[in-house]
Design brief:
Largest sheet of chain A: 7 strands, parallel
Shape of chain A: globular
Helix content of chain B: 10-25%
Bound molecules: flavin-adenine dinucleotide, flavin mononucleotide, FE2/S2 (inorganic) cluster
Oligomer: heterodimer
Structural class of chain B: alpha/beta
CATH class of chain A: Alpha Beta
Distance between the termini of chain B: 33 Å
Strand content of chain A: 15-25%
CATH architecture of the largest domain in chain B: 3-Layer(aba) Sandwich
Number of domains of chain A: 1
CATH topology of the largest domain in chain B: Rossmann fold
Chain lengths: 307, 241
Amino acid sequence: MGNMSIDMRVVLSGWELDNPVIPASGVYGYGCEYLDYYDPNILGTFSFKGTTKEPRFGNSTPRIAECRAGMINSVGLQNPGVDKVVSEELPRLKTFFHKPVIANISGFSVEEYVYCAERLTHEKQVGILEVNVSCPNVHCGGMSFGVTPEGAAEVTRAVKAVATKPVYIKLSPNVTDIVAIARACEDAGADGICLINTLLGMRIDVKTRKPIVANTMGGFSGPAIFPVAVRMVYQVAQACKIPVMGCGGVETARDVIEMMMAGATAVQVGTANLTNPYACKEIIDHLPLEMQKLGITKLSEIIGVVK
Amino acid sequence: MEYRILENIPLTDSVFRMVLEGDTSKITRPGQFVNVSVPGYFLRRPISVCDWDDTTLTLIYKVVGDGTEAMSRMQPGDEVDLLTGLGNGFDVTVEAKHPLVVGGGVGVPPLYRLTKELLKAGKRPTVMLGFNTVDEVFYAKEFDALGVGMIVVTSGYVTDRLPSGYDYVYACGPLPMLRALADRIGTAAGQFSFEERMGCGFGACMGCSCQTKSGDKRISKRICKEGPVFKTEEILWETCR
Ligand SMILES: Cc1cc2nc3c(=O)[nH]c(=O)nc-3n(C[C@H](O)[C@H](O)[C@H](O)COP(=O)(O)OP(=O)(O)OC[C@H]3O[C@@H](n4cnc5c(N)ncnc54)[C@H](O)[C@@H]3O)c2cc1C
Ligand SMILES: Cc1cc2nc3c(=O)[nH]c(=O)nc-3n(C[C@H](O)[C@H](O)[C@H](O)COP(=O)(O)O)c2cc1C
Ligand code: FES
């Protein structure tokens, strides 16, 4: 078919992906949950669940609240801890997924980030280290690393010092000046930026007069945040030279194209997978058609076309 | 996957039965659930499978909020998107000969197919159904038609009326009922079905996690994947809320 001439490949820090579609961290576990629905090898790659030094059970339930065009989660980084990810999850992943993955790491101190990075960077299956700086810093009154340029840069420098793989910093949108933070990461040696993480949100059960999630507040995600994500990707892509992975509210092939035009080299899809487990397969299937409609033959050519 | 509504009728003032036609091949055990996409609502609604055959499945649901209210207005012929075959479901292959099956309110539906399967496995179940009032009773006739011993409770607690002579307990219902039941049955073995707010229903988001025990060890499980049915010996009641 006409698809023969369609080229969906993109390159992230020297790593060529078959297509730019990447399930975001926290909605794809360590890869197995979608095997009932499709073969994950069709993906560009995926970003695995935020992994910490110690195992974490996460927050109390309820952890989920529905919103009009999205959801709030307060999972609280539940994960088996990086040692188990290396000894159990990665070997299992190897049996069915034949591409490198993005290793999403979190920490509550700089040392914890470094520990996770050291454990994961030498794993053959890891293509990129994605550093989630939205976590609260226990040494800083619980303030998130990602809300100040200094905090984000400190984590970046520390992880870069031990990393042998490209380091992408995943930014929180809950800040006043996203550009200043992205620039600080670039200056500290980051190989790329991923944005956005969830927006801090809250829902109340008006019958019981109590917050819906046990943790009171949580991360808001889903289609409602797409315009915020496009705006931030655009601002950061304009200001930085390093590649940007766009994330936030993406649901369709057309959203992927819009995010790339804003400046994203690859596009992560989060919440859409939860309401429709076929979301990424459908996006990848529709991309060639959508490209044809828009007269695009080489997807990488539209990256950041909006000036 | 798309399913076509064959029937969507009220059983009481607020409880409806929906029969859908479509692929039921992923449904393997009683107590599993489907996740229903309701147009206009962002998250799917988890509803237990009450019964199924090769081409149809039956759901019984109570209107408690906007999503289930929208479901109650769906018409025969409408298409609904479902994820099916979710959760572990009840295991009927246990040793027991005289299991007690206890349901409360909209915990009753999955016990219908469970009771059928217990009978098929040669067991002699006794079924106890608890409802708040006489007006809220549904499916008592259908259970009765299976030819099992039946106790229907419409005032007070099911736990005050437990029969004797059972050697295993299956239960689904509100948490206070499950907790009271666990207290009453003491060390008797059984399987209880739980609920939690869900982001996905198929194990991907960790939204529905709970803590369980295995000996001295604490193990985190997902209600949508390793549950919703848990063995009584693994339930950590102090962490259920
Ligand atoms: C495994 C499982 C099986 C279930 N089986 C049945 C059944 O057979 N029949 C039946 O009537 N109900 C059943 N429920 C409960 C049913 O899912 C809720 O009543 C329903 O989701 C409420 O939706 P709503 O839009 O009307 O309410 P709203 O309160 O407006 O819903 C808002 C959000 O909260 C969620 N929510 C609200 N109550 C519950 C609840 N009790 N459990 C999980 N999520 C909830 C909704 O899914 C939605 O995301 C089951 C729940 C689970 C987890
Ligand atoms: C249930 C859930 C869990 C998440 N867990 C993580 C995580 O562990 N690490 C991380 O960096 N982002 C996490 N995120 C954020 C997503 O990766 C993504 O940045 C965000 O949801 C916005 O994209 P979306 O609107 O497409 O979901 C999580 C999101 C959800 C919904
Ligand atoms: S609801 Fe997503 S893991 Fe259970």
